[in-house]
Every structure is written in structure tokens, then in C-alpha cells.
Amino acid sequence: MRRIDNGRSVGGKKVQKLLEFFNQHLPMVGVTEKTLISPTSDDVQKIYAAMLVYTGVTEERTLCFEDVGDEDEAAANGCVLFEELSVFFKKYNDSYRFNISDLVSPDSARFLQFLQDLIKFYNVRIQRQNDLAEVFKERDAIQKRQAEAPLILDSLREDVQHTMDSLDNLRRKKVELAYQIENLKKAETAQKIEINSLDEAIPKTELEIQEQQQKLEATKERIRLMNEEIAELKGKLIQSPDRQKSEMRQQEKDLDRLNTEVQMLETSITNFENLLNQLEQVDHHYFNFMESLNSIKEEYKKITKAQHIASSLQKELEEAIMKNNQKQDELKRLTHTYEAEKNSEALKHDRLSNEVQQYDTWALQLNEKKENLCAKIAEHQINLNTLRDRNADIRKHLQDYNVRETLQDYEQERKLLEDRLTQLLDKKVDHMDKIKKLQTIIVKMESQIEDALKIRHKNFEQHRDEVKNRETMKDWVYTEQQYTE
């Protein structure tokens, strides 16, 4: 088949981009720069078929890539390809209407424009698939969060219960610590009174000790003087016995008196020692009291810290109560919403049932129309075969009768047959367009029915999950009285 070059200048950048696309994605087609600039009808059909399959416009089994020897089969494959391309470009870009001449005698500029439209469609489709994948990913994440919501709710319930138990323990400890603080305050008051009394008694005891020490010194001085007097008396006794006896008696009396005084002084000394021991005991008690006072201060600090912790826990409990109340309000709102949606879903279900019945009726009607169109196409195909047979007969007669008049009649009949063939092809294309439209309507209706059933099933699943969540959450209710006990 000869190549058609219309003489128009084709942009080099456009051709290079198309070559890069084919070399990267469709190297098996074997597209070259010459193929794009001056394409033949075979090249165009091969490239169009490969692009339709690669971009997902049609399936591979619908088109035939192989070269066939039979002209009728090749013409049928060309008709299928033309129908697919005309339907696609009519939907995608109607400004460049695809004609049969674009396959038989292609124009390079229109050919490149159609290829660019196919590539743009492919890029948009890939982008939409990526967007759809992102949407599915977000949907899976939402479903995962919805599945994890009951577990999170159970953990929150456990945390609230644990917080309540901890709060009860803190309340009991708070009461115990309050009693301990009262007892410690009473003990501190008693010890302060005792310390004050000891502080008052210590100066008096020190004065008494000083007085006793002075008395002891005076007594020792008197004993020393008495001993000197006794020594003098003993010397005098040696000089005069009578006088010594009388003085002796007097000295014995004085000695008895002194012994009595010495005993009294010894008693005073013993009392003084007892007072010293008592003072040491008072110091020991005072030291113990200071240690207990320091321990009381430490306990008081711990109690103060516990009170701060209890107040913070009280605030956390109040926040938890507030959140629980918010969740209860949200649960009530969801319950009302669920009831409203349940009623609306019943109405939607009835409406969808009616629509499904209507779609079934339309589908039956479309199938009947499709069968009628197929019958008409078969009839046109029979007429086309009849015309081909007549054309063959005419050629045979021309070979037998090489006459000018016969040639003129043949030319006229050939033109009539070509016009008739063109009309039949146009009718066939129109019928194929109608079939495509009917198939598109059927596919659209089926997709709408499938989407409606999916939405209904999804809503049913969501409502069932919400009912399960409410059944698990209805026993988890805390009143304000329970929180403030």
C-alpha cells in the first residue's frame, strides 16, 4: 500500500514525543518517524488498534492485529476498528470527527492529533486510577479507624474505671491523712506545752543548782573549819583531861550536829544529782521531740503533696466526666441520626426496588432493540455480499465483452453500486453507533444498579456496626452522683 504525504509540515517536537511514547510503552508496534510523518492505511490501523488496547478503550479480543489474506475478513476488522475509533473520538473530542478516510487515506496531521488525544485520555485515566487508589486507601484507613474505635472505647472505659478506683483510694488516704494530721497537731500542741513548761523550769533548776553548789562550797568550808577546830580540841584535850572531856562532850554535840548537817548536805547533793539526771532526761525528751517534730513536718509535706495530687486527679476526673457527658450527648445524637437514617433508608430501599424493576424493563427493551439491529446488520451484510457477487459478474462480463457501450453501462452500474455500498456502510455505521449507545446505556444502568446496591450494602453494614456499638455502650453510663461520691 502506498504512503500518503499531504505535504504539510509536521512539528518535530510532537513527532519526537510520540516516538518516545511508543518506544517506551509499545516497542512491539515498531513505530518510526517515517511512519508518523507519512503513514499508510495498514500502519494507521495497526497503531490505532494497539493504542485502543493499551489505553483500555477496548479489549484485545475485539480487535485483530494480524494481517489476514481474506479481503472480507480484513474489511470486517477495519469496520470494527472504525466503529471503535468513531465512538471513542465522538465521546472524547467531537471537534475532530473521525471519518473512514482517516483509516483508508490518513492525513498525518489528523493522525498525530488523534494519537495525542489517545495519549491524553490514557494519562487522564491513569491519574484517575491513582486518585481512586488514594480514595480507596483513605477508605481503608477510615474503616480501620472504625474497627479500632470499639477497642479504644474499651480502653477508655478501663482507664475511667481505673481512675475511679484510684480516686476512691486517694479519698480514703485523704481521710486517713486528715485523721493523722489532727492527731499530729494535737501531739504537737501537747509537746509545745511541755517544751514551754520545760523552758520555764530550766532557769529555775539552774538557779537551784547554783544555790546548792554555793551551799555545798559553804558546807565544805565549814567542814574544813570544823576539822581544824577538832584538831585544836584534840590538842587541848591532851593538855587538860577534864577540860578536854567537857570540850569533848561539847565537840561530840557539835560533831553530831555537824554530822546531821553533813547528812542533810549529802541529801541535798543526792537531790541535786537527781535533778541533774532529770535535766538530762528532759534534754533527751527534747531531742526526741525535735526528731518527732521533724518527722511530723516531713509527713505534713507528704500530705500536702498528696493533697495537690488529689486536687489534680479531681480535675482530671472532672474532665473525664465532662468528656463522658459529651460522649453520651454524641451517642444520643447518633441514635437519633440512626433512627432518621433508618427511616430514610427504608424509603430509599423501596425507591431503589422500583428503579431496579424499571431498569430491568429497560434492559429487556434494549435487548430487543439490539436483536433487531443485529438482524438489520445481518440483512445489510447479505445485501453487501450480493453486490460483491454482482460486481464480480460484471467484471466477468467486461472480460468477455470488450465493447465501449458495455464499459459505459458498467461504469454507470459501478457508480450506482459504489453509492449503494457507501449508503449501506453509512447505515451500518449508524446502526453500530446505535448499538454502542444502547450498550453504553445498558452498562451505565448496570453500573448504577451495582452502585446503588453497594451503597445500600455499605449503609446496612454501617448501621449494623452502629447498633453493635450502641449495644456495647448502653451499659457504660456514669452519673454525676457516682463521680462526686
TrEMBL record:
Its main location: nucleus. It is found in: Chromosome, Centromere. One of its GO terms (molecular function) is chromatin binding. It comes from Bursaphelenchus okinawaensis. PANTHER family: STRUCTURAL MAINTENANCE OF CHROMOSOMES PROTEIN 2 (PTHR43941). This is Kinetochore protein Nuf2 N-terminal domain-containing protein. InterPro entries: Kinetochore_Nuf2_N, Nuf2_N_sf. GO terms for biological process: cell division; mitotic chromosome condensation. Residues 15-139 form the Kinetochore protein Nuf2 N-terminal domain. Residues 153-455 form a coiled coil. One of its GO terms (cellular component) is chromatin. Belongs to the NUF2 family. Keywords: Cell cycle, Cell division, Centromere, Chromosome, Coiled coil, Mitosis.
